[in-house]
Amino acid sequence: MDTISYIILVPMVYLAIAVCLGGIVIRLAILIRRPKQTSTLMVYPAKKPAWAYTLYDTFLLPSVRKHTPVLWVFLMAFHVCLLLLLLGHLELIGDFRPLWFYDHEIFLGGGFVGLILAICLIFFLFRRFHSPVREISVPEDYYLLLLLLLVVVFGAEMDWARNWYGYGEMTPDDYREYLGSLIRFAPELPYAVTASGHRFMLVLHVLLANLFLMVLPFTKIMHAFLALPVNKLRRG
After folding, report:
1. How far is CA 115 from CA 118, 121, 122, 126, in A?
2. What is the 3-state secondary structure (H, E, C) of 191-232?
3. What is the pLDDT of residues 78-127, one digit of tens each?
4. If you ran DSSP here, which 8-state letter would residue 36 be given?
5. How buried is 28 (Cβ within 10 angstroms: 0-12 exposed, 13-18 middle, 19+ buried)?
6. Taking Cα atoms as reference points, which of 102, 103, 230, 109 lies closest to residue 163?
7. Burial of 152 (0-12, 13-18, 19+ CB in 10 A)
8. Which of the chain's termini has less CB crowding within 10 Å, N or C?
9. How many other CB atoms sit within 10 Å of the CB of residue 203?
10. Are 169 and 198 in contact (CB under 8 A)?
């Protein structure tokens, strides 16, 4: 078990990041090298400043709000909670504090951010079982949503255990020591990571996150890197 845990928590993390970054670069390079289209993607009347409207389209999703307001609410909640969780993970890397101006515990939300994110993913998943979304869905859509849901649930469960049930065997300091050592390329697994009765949750969370990172560049989730430039083309 210790050997498997080490493989998942150390070399597989480096492999997953390398595959993810390499895949993104390759996908973007392929797109850039494609012949330019003679047709235009512009679908909106030209308005100035174009970049302001591009940011508005990308981050506030006005067309989704207009046509499917319930989906818009879940999408906005999902992206806000995802941003908060990413900030929380960044704060586990050494003493880096993106929200240095606000005194708070790691993570923000006392466990409710992960809960909201999980609820949003469940909504997205079951939404694909109903028409008309079901007819345009492919197996990849279900696999990705299920994989991301499991990543969130196993990660949030550690936060829930600490915040809601007083489980203190594995603290943010232990996560910080582990992640910080990976960043320094001097991996260390703290005692709490290797000996805690809760370590299997961390191992499962990291395993699923590794798998998600490795498939991300080759899936529809690449839209996250293309949404801004595509919306700029739509605005002219």
Report:
1. 5, 10, 11, 17
2. HHHHHCCCHHHHHHHHHHHHHHHHHHHHCHHHHHHHHHHHHH
3. 999 998 888 888 887 766 666 655 666 777 777 889 999 999 999 999 99
4. P
5. middle
6. 109
7. buried
8. N
9. 19
10. yes
C-alpha separations of 184 from 11, 90, 93 in Å:
14, 14, 10
pLDDT band (50, 70, 90) for residue 200: confident
Q: What is the pLDDT of residues 132-155, one digit of tens each?
A: 888 888 888 899 999 999 999 998
Q: Which of 37-46, 69-78, 193-202 has the highest mean pLDDT?
A: 69-78
Q: What would the two tokens of residue 123 be? A: 């909504």
Give the number of other Cβ atoms within 10 Å of residue 56's Cβ. 13
28 backbone dihedrals φ, ψ, rounded to 5°: -65, -40
How large is the C-alpha radius of gyration of the chain?
20
> What are the tokens at 211?
């798998």
Task: Note whether 97 and 90 are within 8 A (CB).
Answer: no
Q: What are 56's two structure tokens?
A: 């508005």
